[in-house]
Specification:
Oligomer: heterodimer
Structural class of chain B: mainly alpha
Mean pLDDT of chain A: 93
Radius of gyration of chain A: 18 Å
Strand content of chain B: under 5%
Mean pLDDT of chain B: 87
Number of strands of chain B: 0
Largest interface: A-B, 30 and 22 residues
Distance between the termini of chain A: 29 Å
Number of strands of chain A: 10
Distance between the termini of chain B: 33 Å
Low-confidence stretches of chain A: 1-5
Structural class of chain A: alpha/beta
Largest sheet of chain A: 6 strands, mixed
Chain lengths: 251, 403
């Protein structure tokens, strides 16, 4: 949680638009994220928050505006895209672990093949990361043998193994049973406190309160409101924000 | 609840044989009657079959020319070259069994059992000299020697694959056909090859060559490059729309028309190419079925890690897709193996062709064609079942960790 005044923008989005066919999913998103900031993005389903976070590593293509990640602008240039993806880790709602590979192989595959690390180094780093997410004993199991929470922690370790500068989380706890949400959030909180730049799409408001620097409320493809967690929770400016917060906080 | 008794905790014991019979076969007077009736029927059939096989059938057409069925007209004084090939392949089979375990086990055992059976046939056969029987047993020993070596020393799969490749190329292109103008390895034209030798070369060659081509075509059909995609679609749809027998004919004729006058294009090679492209088109569609079953999230996760398209296919998509379609692919291999009999129309005497030649050789044997065809059917069945069995082993071996 660096002070935002250090002002080192690592992600710059200017007027980002995205259409799916005729559906206008993103309608001019502007966002600047500084190094070490933790951003929480929330909003009703269909509001474009997942689509937005997926444009940041080009899993979705934006059709207007500019996205610059770590000094590299995302265009049709494949080399730029691969460069950005190497610096950006992503964690998915459905984990997306590779079921035919062991936990260890899941984590070391990209470092060995993309970063060209020697196997020994990749495995050493993988073991450290598994310690960090609390499941070193699962290294040689297959994803199908783990619980949902364990799988998501492996997915976080897999993304971290590429030593990214930015971590994107797309609803990381939405597919988990309630008793497993905490173990994943604990890992994410530890990661946030270690100074990682994070963009997190989530409805876990407890997580937002404890580690977010800023929050963005998305609705119908636009940013309705943004601010510090304190501003958002105590004095939201817009009726839509108030309504949505009241809906997700009452239960 | 501290008083859960042993009986409740333990799963029920499986019933004994007598109890099982009483519960399943004789639980009512009607079932008992059916059981007795069925047993009588089975006994009648079995005794008929056994009596026919051992006492009534006349196996002379098979027993008199076992070499003809195995290698066709391959010159008998040069048989050592076939033997050498068989020996090397047996040894590699043994090494692969030791290194790759159950995947190869059924093939190695089938091969060893067939050779041992031939060597130990308990009555004299003119073709089957003591030397030949001895060699067959040596080849069986080579399988076990290879197995032992692979178990004793770690054999790296990569080198083993390389050894297989080099051996196959040497056997098919040098040892068996020999070299033009050579006195040591005199040339043996493929027109003299025949029998099981040709069947196995066509089947193994077709399988090994059509598999990678099929995978590339399947990937090509999903490619975003219009030329690659277009070529794949046209190739697959054209080949799949034509019967194999037509392809074999076309290949025979077209190649003769287009090749410069006087150049000869080996007949066996033409057949192999025809079988390969036919099988590749079907392979492509089978593999594509597997590719489509891979969830998009797998590809997105790989992309997000910075992997390029080639790496994603090689490490993420293909391993999962191919595992899913193993049963279909093996089914296709089995039908390819049996389809090799169609090359008979090009005048190539593979196993079935030899059988027909033997039957037509004398009026006496025409009466005995049932025996000949049954013998050939048995050989095909043994090989096909070995393939089917190893497919099950392969699925089990690769199923680890998947629930």
């Amino acid at each position: 949680m660096n002070d935002a005044s250090t002002e080192q923008p690592i992600i710059i989005c200017e007027d980002v638009h995205k259409w799916f066919g005729h559906f206008h999913a993103l309608r001019g998103i502007n966002m600047t994220v500084n190094k070490g900031e933790v951003i929480v993005i929330f909003g009703p389903s269909g509001s474009g928050k997942s689509t937005f976070i997926r444009t940041l590593n080009r899993l979705e293509e934006h059709q207007r505006g500019r996205i610059i990640v770590d000094g590299t602008e995302l265009t049709h240039d494949v080399r730029n895209i691969e460069k950005v993806r190497m610096e950006t880790g992503m964690v998915f709602q459905q984990f997306n672990l590779f079921p035919h590979l062991t936990v260890m192989q899941n984590i070391t595959l990209a470092p060995i093949r993309v970063r060209k690390w020697p196997v020994a180094k990749a495995e050493e780093v993988a073991m450290q990361l598994l310690e960090r997410v609390g499941i070193p004993e699962q290294a040689h199991k297959y994803p199908g043998q783990l619980s949902g929470g364990q799988q998501q922690r492996v997915a976080i370790a897999r993304a971290l193994a590429m030593q990214p500068k930015i971590m994107l989380f797309d609803e990381p706890t939405s597919a988990l049973d309630p008793e497993m949400i905490k173990e994943v959030l604990d890992v994410m909180i530890e990661l946030a406190r270690s100074g990682m730049t994070m963009l997190v799409v989530t409805h876990e408001m407890g997580f937002a309160k404890s580690v977010a620097d800023r929050m963005y409320f998305f609705d119908e493809g636009v940013v309705v409101e943004s601010g510090t967690p304190d501003e958002i929770f105590t004095k939201p400016q817009h009726d839509r924000t108030k309504l949505f917060l009241s809906q997700i906080l009452t239960h | 609840m501290t008083t859960l008794s042993e009986e409740i905790v333990r799963p029920p014991e499986p019933p004994g044989l007598l109890r099982w019979m009483r519960e399943n076969l004789f639980n009512s007077w009607f079932n008992a009657l059916l059981t007795v009736f069925s047993l009588a029927l089975i006994y009648a059939f079995l005794s008929l079959i056994i009596r026919w096989v051992f006492f009534q059938a006349d196996w002379r057409p098979v027993a008199e020319f076992p070499l003809l069925f195995m290698v066709g007209q391959y010159p008998r004084n040069l048989l050592w070259r076939v033997a050498l090939s068989l020996g090397v392949v047996s040894f590699l089979m043994g090494v692969s069994w030791g290194a790759w375990g159950k995947l190869i086990q059924s093939f190695a055992i089938t091969m060893g059992a067939m050779m041992a059976a031939v060597a130990l046939i308990p009555f004299p056969i003119r073709d089957l000299s003591i030397g030949l029987r001895g060699f067959m047993l040596t080849a069986v020993a080579l399988i076990f020697a290879g197995f032992y070596i692979a178990r004793r020393w770690r054999v790296v799969g990569k080198w083993l694959l390389l050894a297989w490749t080099i051996t196959s190329v040497l056997v098919v292109l040098v040892i068996l056909p020999g070299l033009e103008n050579s006195t040591f390895l005199t040339h043996v034209p493929t027109t003299l090859w025949g029998g099981l030798l040709v069947t196995v070369i066509l089947a193994v060659g077709g399988i090994v060559l059509s598999f990678p081509i099929g995978v590339l075509l399947a990937l090509g059909r999903r490619s975003s490059l219009p030329v690659v995609k277009g070529f794949s679609i046209v190739f697959i749809e054209v080949i799949r729309g034509v019967p194999l027998i037509t392809i074999l004919f076309m290949f025979s004729l077209i190649l003769q028309v287009f090749l410069p006058v006087g150049s000869r294009f080996d007949r066996l090679l033409r057949a192999l190419i025809g079988i390969t492209i036919f099988s590749a088109a079907y392979m492509a569609e089978n593999v594509r079925g597997g590719l489509q079953a891979i969830p998009l999230g797998q590809i997105e996760a790989a992309k997000a890690l910075g992997m390029n398209g080639f790496q994603i296919n090689l490490f993420i998509v293909l391993p999962q897709a191919l595992r899913m379609v193993i049963p279909t692919i093996v089914g296709q291999f089995i039908s390819l193996f049996k389809d090799t009999t169609l090359v008979i129309i090009l005048g190539i005497n593979e196993l079935l062709g030899i059988g027909r030649a033997v039957i037509q050789a004398s009026p006496e044997y025409v009466r005995l064609q049932l025996e000949v065809y049954l013998f050939i059917a048995l050989i095909f069945w043994v090989f096909s079942y070995a393939m089917s069995y190893s497919s099950q082993q392969l699925e089990r071996a690769l199923g680890v960790g998947e629930r």
